[in-house]
Design brief:
The chain is α+β, with helices and mostly antiparallel strands. The chain contains seven helices and four strands.
Length: about 220
């Protein structure tokens, strides 16, 4: 199965029956915290109207680049996969500086989610941290291993929480992270985690992503 086909299949698998109230459901920070704590990540989804636009965008991108993965590598991350190491089964493989995820800034990139979930309250910003290094997961359940969770916790604390401490109190209460298991991933093969922050000034988000708000809104 090609990366592009896997992405299409993943998109289809996440299409759920639209129940009454689905289109107006908005997740508060407390809701989001509860979902992540109970690992019910499948409830995070785009609004039905957003999914229509997103699927159309995916179709155009796949037609132009062959896959969403190829587009992300070429246009958003500017990373070149190793040609003799990458495979359809594993996704792209990159030459990294440190095999430990998030240990070397050259091996990861923080970007806004170009297609964030519209079901979050407006003061929640959805970021994605892309990693050249592989993040170890439990092969049976697809969740991160305890070792990986420890690494990610430390990275999130250092990168996001510590920065927000300069802005005011309760910084640790304004940052959450999660990693989708394979069946929920829109861009398979590219390692990434999701980071959610709330009530964060645009300037701080721009520090993390290196992109202005205008660029983020246009993405």
């Amino acid at each position: 199965m090609s990366w592009s086909q896997a992405e299409v299949d993943s998109s289809r698998s996440k299409q759920r029956e639209i129940l009454p109230g689905d289109e107006t459901k908005v997740f508060s920070w407390a809701d989001v915290t509860g979902v992540i704590e109970t690992n019910r990540l499948d409830v995070f989804r785009r609004q039905p109207s957003e999914r229509v636009v997103y699927k159309a965008w995916c179709k155009d991108i796949i037609a132009a680049y062959g896959s969403i993965t190829a587009y992300m590598c070429a246009e958003r991350l500017r990373w070149t996969p190793l040609p003799n190491a990458s495979a359809e089964e594993t996704g792209p493989v990159f030459d990294y500086h440190d095999a430990t995820p998030f240990a070397d800034p050259r091996d990861y990139r923080i970007l806004p989610n170009d297609w964030p979930y519209g079901s979050f309250e407006p003061d929640i910003t959805h970021l994605i941290v892309w990693s050249k290094s592989r993040i170890a997961t439990d092969p049976e359940h697809g969740v991160v291993t305890p070792e990986s969770r420890e690494l990610i916790d430390a990275f999130v604390e250092k990168t996001f929480v510590k920065r927000l401490e300069l802005e005011g109190p309760d910084a640790s209460e304004k940052v959450l992270w999660f990693k989708n298991w394979g069946a929920l991933q829109s861009v398979r093969g590219l390692e990434h985690i999701h980071v959610l922050v709330r009530e964060v000034p645009d300037g701080v988000v721009e520090e993390w992503t290196g992109e202005t708000k205008n660029r983020m809104n246009a993405a």
